[in-house]
């Protein structure tokens, strides 16, 4: 090294001191940064844990008939509350437009409920997308008003195809997933007309809902051991489009002798439609609360009118039981 660039002993010491100070400062800064990063990481982990804790009530719902009526109100309510929803309708564009919410939590599906193979594809799509399904809501269905005599075999069978067999298709395809995870909840949206059929002109519609009550009670007993709950929902009159011309079917060949049936039909189409006392938003809130319940009821009557009609029916049955008890129970063998 040329002399001009050599270091004196003092300069060397000063240089070493400076290097030591610099090294100490660097170590201190590194420790501070490490502590800051560790603190920040801990905070992030804590925040993630808190976020997960806050989302423990989030469920994956599968709702049929979601483009209108109670189904549409329920889907919107669920999405606005951070739930995950697979929703079905025959027309997917109509469904998207009706819901009006674009979210990763929303999976719209075009499903023909009367075709079981198509239902299977829809259920699998929901499981593939969300990883599981937890709450099934069999809401799809339509009203049919007409005397039993005047409704054709075709009209009658079609009402059963959608209201009854469509729900059974969903249940059969969903249960393998629910059984495997040992948990789930099935809501079958029936009607107060499935508990009391004293509505002239609604015999076939009531029959479809009575059928839903019947198979749901057996279903509940069958799947209880798998940790799966079943709730039969029997709404009264709620202010949806159920009674509108687009949802309420009438006979192609009406028999004019049935004046009472025509009066009931007219009253529902012209007086009740749009004036129902039940609020579908509140009905949706009830369903969500029942889904969160540890011991949900098998029978869920919705609305003060539904409660009144159910109580009238039960009292009438009690009176019939007592009026012929001695006669009707004396049917055993004389031993």
Explain this structure.
With 335 residues, the chain is α/β, with parallel strands linked by helices. The chain has one domain (57-318): Rossmann fold, CATH 3.40.50. Helices cover 55% and strands 12% of the residues. It contains 10 helices and 9 strands. It has helices at 9-54, 69-80, 92-99, 116-130, 153-181, 203-223, 259-272, 280-292, 304-323, 325-329; strands at residues 60-63, 84-89, 106-110, 135-138, 143-144, 184-189, 228-235, 248-249, 299-302. Strands 3-2-1-4-6-7-9 form a 7-stranded parallel β-sheet, with helices on both faces. A two-stranded parallel sheet has the order 5-8. Helix 2 links the parallel strand 1 (60-63) and strand 2. Helix 2 packs across helix 8. The chain is globular and about 60 Å long. The termini are far apart.
Label the structural class: alpha/beta
CATH topology: Rossmann fold
The total strand number stands at 9
Count the helices. How many?
Answer: 10
State the end-to-end distance: 129 Å
CATH class (first level) name: Alpha Beta
- The overall average pLDDT, rounded, is 84
Helix content: 40-55%
CATH architecture: 3-Layer(aba) Sandwich
**CATH-level-4 superfamily name:** NAD(P)-binding Rossmann-like Domain
Unreliable stretches, pLDDT < 50, 5 or more residues? 1-56
H and E order: HEHEHEHEEHEHEEHHEHH
Strand arrangement across the biggest beta sheet? 3-2-1-4-6-7-9
Which helices and strands occur, and which strands form pairs?
Blueprint: H1 9-54, E1 60-63, H2 69-80, E2 84-89, H3 92-99, E3 106-110, H4 116-130, E4 135-138, E5 143-144, H5 153-181, E6 184-189, H6 203-223, E7 228-235, E8 248-249, H7 259-272, H8 280-292, E9 299-302, H9 304-323, H10 325-329
Parallel strand pairs: 1-2, 1-4, 2-3, 4-6, 5-8, 6-7, 7-9
Helix pairs in contact: 2-8, 4-5, 5-6
